[in-house]
């Protein structure tokens, strides 16, 4: 079972307020992203909050991402996206349908459109990084 599956299992049993708390908690658990990496080059466009995503070399051919947001719920959504692809081979990440993996969370109906509008851009950026690294 993947980390995302574990999160979904818990998420499905929660009411709306508890789901917000779960997302906030996921965001708090993200690996810290150094301030020096929070630049215009790592900024995800189209998000209502500031979101930064930066790929780093992982173990072997695995791709590891550092990410952050200045909004707690958005940071939790970032954590969900990363849970779908973190520490997987770049080639796999480039081909992963992240949106389909996140579909069971029904974020569009659970959260305001402001909080989810940048998700497709974040997914695209993660996949572009992976495709570039996979060569």
Could you explain how this protein is built, in words?
The protein has a single domain, classed as Alpha-Beta Complex (Sufe protein. Chain: A). The protein has eight helices and three strands; from the N terminus they run ααββαβααααα. The radius of gyration is 14 Å and the shape is globular. Pfam families: SufE. Belongs to the SufE family.
Query: Mean pLDDT across all residues, rounded?
Result: 90
Radius of gyration: 14 Å
Q: What is the CATH level 1 assignment?
A: Alpha Beta
The coarse silhouette is: globular
Global structural class? alpha+beta
Estimate percent helicity.
40-55%
Pfam families: SufE
Family: Belongs to the SufE family.
Protein name: Fe-S metabolism protein SufE
InterPro entries: Fe-S_metab-assoc_dom
SSE arrangement:
Blueprint: H1 3-11, H2 16-28, E1 51-57, E2 62-69, H3 72-85, E3 88-89, H4 90-95, H5 98-102, H6 107-110, H7 113-116, H8 119-134
Antiparallel strand pairs: 1-2, 2-3
Helix pairs in contact: 2-3
Q: What are the key terms here?
A:
single chain, 135 residues, alpha+beta, Sufe protein. Chain: A, three-stranded antiparallel beta sheet, 3 strands, 53% helix
């Amino acid at each position: 079972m993947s980390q995302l599956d574990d999160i979904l299992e818990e998420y499905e049993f929660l009411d709306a307020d508890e789901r917000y708390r779960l997302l906030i908690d996921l965001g708090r658990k993200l690996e810290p992203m150094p301030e020096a990496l929070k630049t215009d080059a790592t900024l995800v466009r189209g998000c209502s909050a500031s979101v930064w995503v930066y790929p780093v070399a992982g173990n072997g051919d695995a791709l590891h991402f550092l990410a952050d947001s200045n909004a707690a719920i958005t940071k939790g959504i970032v954590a969900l996206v990363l849970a779908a692809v973190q520490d997987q081979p770049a080639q796999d990440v480039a081909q992963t349908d992240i949106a389909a993996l996140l579909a069971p969370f029904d974020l569009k109906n659970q959260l305001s459109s402001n909080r989810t509008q940048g998700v497709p851009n974040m997914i695209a950026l993660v996949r572009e990084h992976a495709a570039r690294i996979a060569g």
